[in-house]
Amino acid sequence: MVNKKRVIQFKTPVYVEERGTAVGPKEGSGPLGHGFDYVFPSLLCGEKDWQTAEKKMTEKAITYCLHKQRLKDNHLDLFIAGDLTNQSTVSSQIARNLHVPFIGSYSACATAIENCIVAGMWINGGGARHVLCASSSHIGGCEKQFRFPIEFAQQKPDTAQTTVTGAGAIILGRHQSMIQMTEGLLGKVIDLGINNPYELGAAMAPAAADTLLTYLQETEQKPSDFDLILTGDLARSGSEIFKKLLREHGVIVSENYDDCGVMMYGTNQQVLAGGSGAGCCATVVFGHIFNEMLANRLKRVLIIATGALHSANTVQQHKTIPCIAHAVVFERRGN
Amino acid sequence: MVNKKRVIQFKTPVYVEERGTAVGPKEGSGPLGHGFDYVFPSLLCGEKDWQTAEKKMTEKAITYCLHKQRLKDNHLDLFIAGDLTNQSTVSSQIARNLHVPFIGSYSACATAIENCIVAGMWINGGGARHVLCASSSHIGGCEKQFRFPIEFAQQKPDTAQTTVTGAGAIILGRHQSMIQMTEGLLGKVIDLGINNPYELGAAMAPAAADTLLTYLQETEQKPSDFDLILTGDLARSGSEIFKKLLREHGVIVSENYDDCGVMMYGTNQQVLAGGSGAGCCATVVFGHIFNEMLANRLKRVLIIATGALHSANTVQQHKTIPCIAHAVVFERRGN
């Protein structure tokens, strides 16, 4: 019997060559607002529909990514992207303008990190030197598609989350930089029977716990080996369940644990349990967290991106919600 | 300036360890029907809704894949899957029962081949030894979601295609077998301005031509170097446009060219221009084509899977349809 390890150690070093973020007005006025590259003053971003607004936002994030390093898209070997719109059309429409070989991905709100892991493996396998990844979400598009149009002003329970309007782009590659992606772990799909789309934190927490426990066990590390362990979008209620599940396995995470969906908004912002969406983890990590790493306030960070793999259709069919959590480790190089 | 080659040569050999296919009644009674592992006698596959029927069909294909080799799912290192349902929920619900690390993919009808290329890179990069890939489509689910429920009996033009009800699964890995995946080429997204979802063959043909021309140019090969060049689902109208586009570049494909969407159905079956859908290329290649290769009637086959990256929403917005085509080469080993 072969001892199968799930943690991937990137043998060819994979660096964060560049990153770009663009968000909506609510995210821009939150506590992390100053850390994003661009804040759109309106949800429509000057467009006529939510999907085109989301596309514009992602293109803005990609433009920052490319222009900071004066790169052109012919520098890139591969584009990996996914989003929450049906058939991931925002990403496909962006790919149309990039003229770069394209992999479409879907891992719900964990898409940003699925993309990073696939990019890392591509770089390791010799198939690419520079890979652009993008993911996004938009509250207008998501509410309309998964629930009701926002104009309907639907009332929701406290455990419901607010979709982050934001897009994150990253270029991973072989050019040395200050931040390195050293390890990755693809999650298994876990479904403990929750079928309420207003309880996504509770639905996703077991997947996040499974991924963290697998990671710690395989690498023989403890939570204190990281400056920060960060879940993607469990929000307040889901984070508590995540910590409780870990305690049941004798693992305590507290001071060095946070959640992107909790960090994104201030306590004065009406966001129910906190943020969610494929843009949540992407903007918080590629924006705020990388800023903190560059400023040497964080050196080693474990990201556990969480995704709920449901649709409006499966909710109407009362199907339970399969969830996933993918993990990567980012490390600051040097002092 | 570095000469960037897009064709990926898999340095670590990647073999087709096993494959499984399951289709609906119309596909089963077509000219390739005898080559599929399982034919469901009804479109609902004994279930109550189209999505659950599609899930059952894909699980059947996976079961054949695993049982032919007496494999268990703990043999697998990775599961890669995608389908046409919103948020790819059929694939996610299957992943829930597999307990294998999961990558969600989306490349519309080209998903089967996107999966193969990602799996190949994963095996090359040392991240996995055995990768299960699956993709599927179902006419009931697709018509309801992209157009109108089939009960509505919508009239369509001759260029419209019939969604294949079928699922294909494949295990790619390091165990030597008769069929090897030797090369891959990820497509760029191309959109020449067609916004009519009943003209998908015409929309996708330029992407297929771009991928084939890039492949031939980079590898300095000619169409006659293959026993068969096979597009995924251009169907009759799209195939003619594909051949015309190639002729404009001085490339002639004729005797050794075919299209999965054309091959799937007999001329007596009412399917308009032919088959389409993520299950089309997957079942024809993993079923019929691999059978022909094992029987030594085909030795070297170039598959160009085609995908139209639109949604019901983008169609209603009159947006043009971005299209993609991914290519792989399968070769029979030995005599």
Automatic annotation (TrEMBL), chains A, B:
Q: Which Pfam families match?
A: SpoVAD
Under which name does UniProt file this protein? Stage V sporulation protein AD
Would you say which domain of life the source belongs to? Bacteria
Lineage at the top is: Bacteria, Bacillati, Bacillota, Bacilli, Bacillales
**GO molecular function per UniProt:** acyltransferase activity
